[in-house]
Amino acid sequence: MLIMKKEENSIYFVTGNKNKFSEALEVFTKERVPYDLKQKDIDTMEIQAETLKDVALFKLNSVKPKITNSFFIEDAGFFVDIPLNGFPGVYSSYVLKTIGNDGILKLIDEYEGSKAHFSAIISLYFKPLDSIIFFEGYISGRVSRDMRGEGGFGFDPIFIPDSIPDKTFAELSIHRKNRISHRGQAIKKLILFLKKNH
Ligand code: ITT
């Protein structure tokens, strides 16, 4: 009985990326969310779709039969708007694995006036209401001329947010990144919802 109650008070973040989980946990801990956040790494089916929302929804539906609790997944992408017209976007994972940050810097070739952004979309399956809800986050910035910083992950060493124009994401602490990042914003919206609906 006690165990059942504990389970009901848990919410799962389904992700294979422990950095994403650490960032989410930092916000959950600080905001005193009435749920225990747990990571679950389930093999999910990824589709190649045009938008992050389509990817997120497909993934959520493929995970749903395997989890009995409330859970969420999050899909993020890095978009170089100028001069790459939004590339890599929905291809971010593949591009990071293949050409990496180095490859992106070569493609841009020290272009002056680049613009880039990160987007994140969380899709939550909320069991008490048997419903799916989306929460989004966005941050704009530019591409650094070179890789800088030891923190973060993925594209962090080459992304400079507009709001902290002398640092890459990889030069910020988790806390500072969360205060402004795509993921931090989406997680805070999720937390507001969870608190309202507890
Ligand atoms: P999941 O298991 O949660 O899907 P993932 O690493 O595949 O983990 P995404 O599909 O959401 O994550 O991310 C697409 C790519 O963008 C991936 O290569 C990430 O490393 C990178 N990325 C996502 N969020 C990032 C962030 O905050 N900073 C830097 N790179 C990020």
Textual characterization of the structure:
35% of the residues lie in helices and 27% in strands. With 198 residues, the chain is an alpha/beta fold. The protein has one domain (6-196): Maf protein. Helix 2 (18-30) packs across helix 7. The two termini are 20 Å apart. Inosine 5'-triphosphate (ITT) is lined by residues 15-17, 20, 74-78, 92-93, 96, 118, 152-156, 169, 181, 183.
Nutshell version of this structure?
The protein is an alpha/beta fold and 198 residues long. The protein is 35% helix and 27% strand.
Task: Write a concise keyword list for the protein shown above.
globular; 7 helices; 198 residues; binds inosine 5'-triphosphate; 27% strand; alpha/beta; Maf protein
Number of folding domains?
1
User: What is the second-level CATH architecture?
Assistant: Alpha-Beta Complex
Continuous helix count: 7
The global form is globular
Distance between the termini: 20 Å
Q: Helix-strand pattern, N to C?
A: HEHEHEEHHEEEHH
- Total number of beta strands: 7
**Might you state the CATH topology name?**
Maf protein
CATH class category: Alpha Beta
* Ligands, ions, cofactors: inosine 5'-triphosphate
- Strand fraction equals 25-35%
Mean pLDDT: 93
Q: Main sheet?
A: 7 strands, mixed
Helix content: 25-40%
CA radius of gyration = 17 Å
